[in-house]
Amino acid sequence: MVTPPPVLLRDVSVGYGGEPVCAPVSFELAAGGAVALVGANGSGKSTVLRAVLGLLVPAAGTVEVLGRPVDERSARHRREVAGVLDDDAYFPALTVAEHLYLTARGHGVLGAHDVVAEVLDEFGLAEHARALPVTLSSGQRRRLLLAAGFVRPRSLLVLDEPEQRLDRRMRDRLAARLRDERAAGGAVLLATHDPELVAEVCDAAVHVGETVSEVVDPDEAARRIGRAVL
C-alpha cells in the first residue's frame, strides 16, 4: 500500500471574498521533505498555508493533508499537524514555561516537563521561563511561538516566515532544527523570504505569483529571492 504524501495540492485557488490572491497552486510534499513557498509580499503564500491548515476553504482545487481532505477539526489533524503562523497567540496569564507545558500536555506529550526544558534551552528562553509573554521582546515572543510548535507531536510542521525577528544565531539554530525534523521523517512546509533558509533546508520550492505559480528547485528559489525579482 502506497503511503499518501503529507500534503498534496491540485490547482488550488485561494483568496478572500471570492477573489483569488494568486495563480492556482499545485505541489506535493513527501514525508521527510521540505517545501518553501516563496513570492513577493502579498503574493498569497500565507493564504496557501491557511488552506493547508484548514483555516481557509479554497475557492477551487483540492487540498489533501495526510491523505485526506483537510479538516482542522479532526482529531488526526490536530494530533499530527503543527502550525506556526505570523501572529502572536498566547495565554496572557501564563508564564513562558506554563504556556509550553500546557501545549505539550494538551497534545498528550509524556514527560512534558523534560520536553519543555529542552525546547526552552534550544530557543534561548530558559532564563525567561517564569516571565509572562507580554514582558518579552518581539524576537523573544517569536521564539516562544516557534517553541510551541516544536514542543508537541507532529508529522507535518507548517511555518509562516519563521525567520522573522530572529537574530543570525537563532536563524542558524532554526535551520539545523528543521534539518533534524526532516531526518526524523517529518515534513516541513514554510513560507519564507530567506534565501539561505530555502537553500539549507528545502528540497523543493513553489514560487507563488499573481499570474503564474510554479514549482522550482531550491537554488533557483534562493536566486530569485536574492535578486528580489519575485
UniProtKB/TrEMBL annotation:
<dbReference type="GO" id="GO:0005524">
    <property type="term" value="F:ATP binding"/>
</dbReference>
<dbReference type="Pfam" id="PF00005">
    <property type="entry name" value="ABC_tran"/>
</dbReference>
<dbReference type="InterPro" id="IPR027417">
    <property type="entry name" value="P-loop_NTPase"/>
</dbReference>
<dbReference type="InterPro" id="IPR017871">
    <property type="entry name" value="ABC_transporter-like_CS"/>
</dbReference>
<keyword id="KW-0547">Nucleotide-binding</keyword>
<dbReference type="InterPro" id="IPR003593">
    <property type="entry name" value="AAA+_ATPase"/>
</dbReference>
<feature type="domain" description="ABC transporter">
    <location>
        <begin position="7"/>
        <end position="228"/>
    </location>
</feature>
<dbReference type="GO" id="GO:0016887">
    <property type="term" value="F:ATP hydrolysis activity"/>
</dbReference>
<keyword id="KW-0813">Transport</keyword>
<dbReference type="InterPro" id="IPR003439">
    <property type="entry name" value="ABC_transporter-like_ATP-bd"/>
</dbReference>
<keyword id="KW-0067">ATP-binding</keyword>
<dbReference type="InterPro" id="IPR051782">
    <property type="entry name" value="ABC_Transporter_VariousFunc"/>
</dbReference>
<protein>
    <submittedName>
        <fullName>ABC transporter ATP-binding protein</fullName>
    </submittedName>
</protein>
